[in-house]
Task: inverse folding
């Protein structure tokens, strides 16, 4: 046993001490294995044969050109396979061909770059001693040298065919995104105004989703819940967009269980209340109703809304209550909307105003 001067004991792990070393004692193995070093350097076929070098260079540039073709194909697919309203097949085909083309473009750049590195760049192994990283003048000068060396070794400046085809592929690859981002907002209408209104208006009957059959007040028993859309919505030109805003949940509670704020006394019909189904957090459908507690649960991030308290948020990340749809019954006993919602449905957005008018 030895002392290293710092007070801690060092034990040589020979046959007499190794097994008895007490916990906390440093152990230095007496027979530490030798550094095996690097395997001998092997020349590649491209190092030995200039023809092979040219051949691999052509393969790499071919991959970069292939990437350009895929990028152009993505743009062509965008125009050739337009998304047709209410046609799921057009969405599937558009997504499939766009996805395949963009994947092909990125994959070709990736494979070409890896092949360039493996077959053509200098592959000599080097040992770099560790040192402190500081931004001194010497370090900076050395960095410039390293860049120049890398340029020389990779042939980036010298191999103009490779360089130009790679630059072309990298420039072409993001082009499909320009056309895809264009579709994120409607071209002709103000998106904020479109979000402010739904298909509900005075006299529109509440209908079952998805059958579209209207609902009588007498059908809504205590504790039941209905998924509701405006009657006739399926004839709308933009069915899916309208449904995404107008979806409603309908429930019946005992009238005395409802805490109604001033101005909303006539918004329910004998304890039947209708609330937007679109979560005010980020817009998932709030579809889980707890019959006993009258809580609505959003499955996405667990926001909970209390129907007894006008759908106030009682848990989770949502910040606003679910908007209430004012309802009544028509002369035939069917539930109808009194108006549109009195505030925009769904998550908050930049242009959301407090002075929303129906
Ligand atoms: S979308 Fe409902 S809690 Fe997040």
Result:
């Amino acid at each position: 046993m030895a002392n290293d001067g710092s007070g801690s004991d060092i034990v040589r792990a020979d046959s007499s001490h190794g097994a008895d070393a007490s916990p906390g004692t440093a152990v230095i193995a007496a027979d530490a294995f030798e550094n095996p070093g690097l395997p001998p350097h092997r020349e590649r076929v491209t190092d030995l044969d200039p023809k092979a070098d040219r051949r691999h260079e052509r393969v790499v540039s071919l991959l970069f050109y292939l990437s350009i073709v895929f990028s152009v194909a993505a743009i062509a697919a965008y125009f050739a396979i337009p998304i047709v309203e209410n046609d799921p097949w057009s969405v599937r085909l558009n997504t499939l061909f766009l996805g395949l083309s963009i994947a092909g473009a990125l994959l070709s750049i990736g494979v070409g770059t890896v092949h360039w590195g493996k077959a053509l760049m200098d592959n000599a192994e080097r040992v770099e001693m560790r040192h402190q990283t500081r931004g001194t003048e010497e370090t900076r000068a050395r960095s410039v040298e390293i860049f120049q060396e890398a340029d020389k070794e990779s042939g980036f400046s010298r191999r103009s065919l490779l360089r130009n085809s790679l630059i072309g592929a990298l420039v072409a690859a993001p082009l499909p995104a320009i056309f895809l981002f264009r579709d994120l907002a409607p071209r002709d209408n103000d998106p904020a105004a479109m979000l402010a209104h739904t298909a509900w208006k005075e006299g529109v009957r509440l209908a079952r989703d998805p059958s579209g059959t209207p609902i009588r007040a007498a059908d809504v028993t205590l504790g039941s819940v209905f998924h509701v859309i405006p009657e006739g919505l399926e004839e709308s030109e933009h069915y899916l967009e309208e449904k995404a805003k107008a979806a409603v949940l309908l429930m019946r509670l005992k009238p005395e269980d409802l805490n109604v704020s001033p101005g909303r006394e006539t918004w329910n019909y004998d304890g039947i209340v209708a609330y937007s189904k679109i979560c005010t957090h980020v817009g998932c459908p709030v579809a889980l109703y707890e019959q006993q507690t009258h809580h609505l649960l959003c499955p996405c991030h667990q926001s909970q809304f209390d129907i007894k308290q006008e759908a106030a948020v009682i848990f989770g990340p949502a910040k606003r209550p679910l908007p209430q749809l004012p309802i009544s019954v028509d002369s035939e006993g069917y539930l109808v909307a009194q108006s549109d919602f009195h505030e925009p449905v769904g998550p908050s957005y930049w242009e959301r105003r407090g002075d929303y008018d129906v």
